Amino acid sequence: MTLPINKKITGTILVIHPKFIGDAVNNTTAISLLRELYPNNKIIVLVNPLLAPIFKRDDRFNLTVMIDERHDKKQKKSIFYQAKKIKEHNVQLAIIMKSAFSDALLCTLANIKYKIGYKKNGRSWLLSHKYKINNNHHYINRYCRLVNEPHNQPFTTSPSTYVFSKRSKLIKADRNKPTIAVYYGGLVKKYRHYPSSQAFQSLALINQTLPSHFVLVGDNQEITDNAKISTDLIENSIDFQDLTGKTTLTELVDIIASVDLLITIDSGAMHIAAATKTAFVAVVGLGTSPWSIVEPKCENKISLVANGSSLNDAEIIKEISPEKIVEAAFSLLKNKITFL
């Protein structure tokens, strides 16, 4: 049995953030608990270069952001280099949210006394506080547990996710129309991708009843997929912007925070919407994790989860009809649009 941390931590605390956007957003719940336990300690978050901008403008948790240069594609550094940088900050406690052996080794090389993490990938002997992961736990529960259990469980509930956002200047919308951000993913998302033809149908049906301004978002890998939707929108004279591949991560956060609704697949964009309190429709096919452990814990959403009879993984998400998406969208928009 792992003994709780009884001594007061007076030094710096290090949190090794998860790799992906959605996971990093979910981990803000654990950061919130940690800051409540240690209101005056310096908390460093070690993040991948991609995620650094959203945490550098944090206004709630008073964090120090350190870029994990082991994952810098332009100038990758060694684990010894990164350990040396961490060692300079007198880190006394590390909470390792990732499961890689190398992250536990990093903290050991940095001479950190208390190292908290899950028993994964043969790294238990490197950890001072090690826990068996419950694969049925929601990811938020997993992250919060690594703060709560080592401190003798002072918390009984998890807080909401949070990321800082501000009004986007990129949206060029008619104020008399609702603004709807759209992220159906590209083929790169594999079985989570919602087909372009059905995606367009859903937007056209919404526009028939409620003329709207649509904002297509995505990264560089999804430009071709969204171009197909754009072509159909142009041919049908539907008001839209295609910002695919044209935004930074912080600009994407601000866009999602500024719209009336997001229509999205299971994605980082979905978790950003939850963290910025933007209403969203989640179109869920076969994900990389079971839906029950990744579904955002918020109320202003409708989750459309494919549960049909198809034995073809690629066909599963197609069972969610455009009409179902429209119904869900109007259900969420009716709280904002009086004539629906």
Automatic annotation (TrEMBL):
The keyword Transferase applies. Pfam families: Glyco_transf_9. GO terms for cellular component: cytosol. InterPro entries: Glyco_trans_9 (IPR002201), LPS_LOS_Heptosyltrfase (IPR051199). The keyword Glycosyltransferase applies. Keywords: Glycosyltransferase, Transferase. It comes from the Bacteria. This is Heptosyltransferase II. It comes from Pseudoalteromonas arctica A 37-1-2.
